[in-house]
Give the backbone structure.
Amino acid sequence: MIMERYKGMGFKLTPQRLAILDYLEGNDSHPSAEEIYTAVSKKFPTMSLATVYNTLEALRLRGEVRELTVDPGKKRFDPDTGPHHHLICTGCRRIVDVRVDFSLSVPTGERRDFEITGNHIEFYGLCPECRGEAGAGSRSAVKRSSRAARKEGD
Amino acid sequence: MIMERYKGMGFKLTPQRLAILDYLEGNDSHPSAEEIYTAVSKKFPTMSLATVYNTLEALRLRGEVRELTVDPGKKRFDPDTGPHHHLICTGCRRIVDVRVDFSLSVPTGERRDFEITGNHIEFYGLCPECRGEAGAGSRSAVKRSSRAARKEGD
DNA sequence: TATTATGTTAAAATGATTCTAGATAGCAGG
DNA sequence: CCTGCTATCTAGAATCATTTTAACATAATA
């Protein structure tokens, strides 16, 4: 099914790209380039990070992935290009999909003459795991990136 | 008015910080750290970029500025911490405020047990200037950053 | 097979942000 | 007025994500 989709759009299905597409297929974890690289490297030890970036950009231009600007400091990628929104845990930075259609429109008075083409909602909150460990030094729950930890106070 | 607000919260009002606060006061251009630095440097030639970052972080922790993750590759800062949303021109990356209250809530089925604390809507579109120059090579309108130019295809 | 375009790679370059270490300023106690 | 403390400032180094470069494959094509 993948093969057909890229025929005749100037996109060569190299083994590296196949591996990336394979990793992305149905992946709803919103991985960063680094994460994709790490995962794909296991099957493909000579893979270069640059190839990951190149491929992601090629896919983005073809509308096959969405680039999320939701995490300060790094991009995340979403193979689901259909309309949906995201719920972000301010504790561990986990991102989950929100598949609800809120038909939003900006009232003329606020539109400043822009031609509006789309929208994206970020909901913020605490996931069950992070909510639990709020109190003392319970080291139990989710492992948070050093960056996420430093950002405490959101 | 500024002075009082920071009394007794462990925040010294140094001249550098005053200059930054002064630049931010009522500023709705959503500047990056670099832009703040450039502006404040004029009045304060010895200012260090690190001081800008330090001050912004101190302000963020006190809830006096919001860090926007709206621009891939750099943070932008918003001194307006009240609830509002943003409209982003995909041509020139200009960001304007949208002061409308959409009371959104995530239906239980999609909430995944998160405790939701807030939300932020990004509207995308083309500003009048960028809409105009869409056609030929009319060099007239807005100057776009090299990064914005490269991102064509959003 | 020669040609051309497209991909891959490692390494260097860039840009944003953070960290480090030493210099300074303002203040409490003597 | 001195001494030490703590918060802040600054330049520069370090780090992290991303992009670019240059040289080398590879595939599709003439």
Observations:
- Chain B touches chain A through 40 residues (CB under 8 Å).
- The longest strand of chain B covers residues 115-126.
- The mean pLDDT of chain B is 86.
- Residues 12, 14, 32-34, 49-50, 53-54, 73-75, 147 of chain B lie near DNA strand C (CB under 10 Å from a C1').
